[in-house]
Amino acid sequence: MTMNGYEKWLFQHKEKSGAAIRLICFHYAAGNAAWFSPWERYCGNDIELCAVQLPQRSERISEKMPDTIEELAEQFVSDSMELFDRPFVIFGHSMGAMVAYETAFRLKEKYGISPELLVLSACGAPLYPEIQFTGRSILNADDDDIKDILDDYGQTDEELLGSQEFCEYYFPIVRSDFHVCEIYCKKPVSALDCSISVLRGNRDERVTAEEAALWGRYTSADCTVRNFTGGHFFPQEHIHEIIEIIRSKINNSEVKYFGQQ
User: Fold this and answer.
1) Is the pLDDT at 56 greater than 50, yes or no?
2) What average pLDDT does the segment 86-110 reach?
């Protein structure tokens, strides 16, 4: 079945007609939307989980990854305006945080709408013209270099990396994703007017506390930084806590369930 519009972007999406909030989630570089599958059990009836599947992987393997984070966000927003017909929160982890920010920026600039909350996880603010996301160039990396990078992140099974078939599928995704991160550059500050919550693992060597705090320059609203126990991929050990941060936004604001008066 051919999917059109926002449907092709969402993984295992369950519509919840009475939900107060749509939670739109962007995964990390070289990841996929299945990373958010465990989150559904914590969402209840008040949060509709929308895990975004980026191009070039899983059922979208035949689609080319856009050349920049900005182009990726533009495509998602253009295809997915139907998702923003009710209050929403945007979450992004690592590369996904860059996509989340660019999505929020485009929604505000083009349509005058903003999320109730922008949650940016494991990603420093893009204040500097050149940020090396991996610490090394990905474009000229050979397969052994790719394996070293993935080993540094600790998210890929060594047995899989020993499979030539898997590497032929996966390494182009790694190169495409990490390249758009490497060329993502300095952004105008005070561009948003929504609240920002920045999440960081206290053992994450890739994102310092100072880099996380600098996201406060990107909004005229409040920005809070929360530290969690763990490294770069801490969220999977703190799903309930993260969902409760989002749920508290529902409880402490005037956001209502659809259908409430």
Assistant:
1) yes
2) 96
Instruction: For residue 90, tell me if it sits in a domain.
Output: yes
Helix (H, G, I), strand (E, B) or coil at 183: coil
Count of residues in the chain: 261
Helix extents (H) in the chain: 40-43, 69-79, 95-106, 143-153, 158-161, 164-182, 209-213, 239-251
Please work out, in degrees rounded to the nearest 5, the angle formed at the alpha carbon of residue 53 by the alpha carbons of 96 and 91.
35
Mean pLDDT, rounded, for 228-232: 96
Is the pTM higher than 0.70? The answer reads yes
For residue 91, being part of any structural domain is answered with yes
Rounded Cα distance between 121 and 104, Å, is: 15
* 26 Cα distance to chain centroid: 3
Average pLDDT, the chain: 89
The answer to whether residue 85 is domain-embedded is yes
CATH of the domain at 21: 3.40.50.1820
How many separate domains does the chain show?
Answer: 1
Q: How far is CA 29 from CA 21, 119, 120, 253, in A?
A: 26, 17, 14, 32
Task: Please indicate, yes or no, if residue 65 is contained in any of the structural domains.
Answer: yes
Place of tokens 């008040």: 46
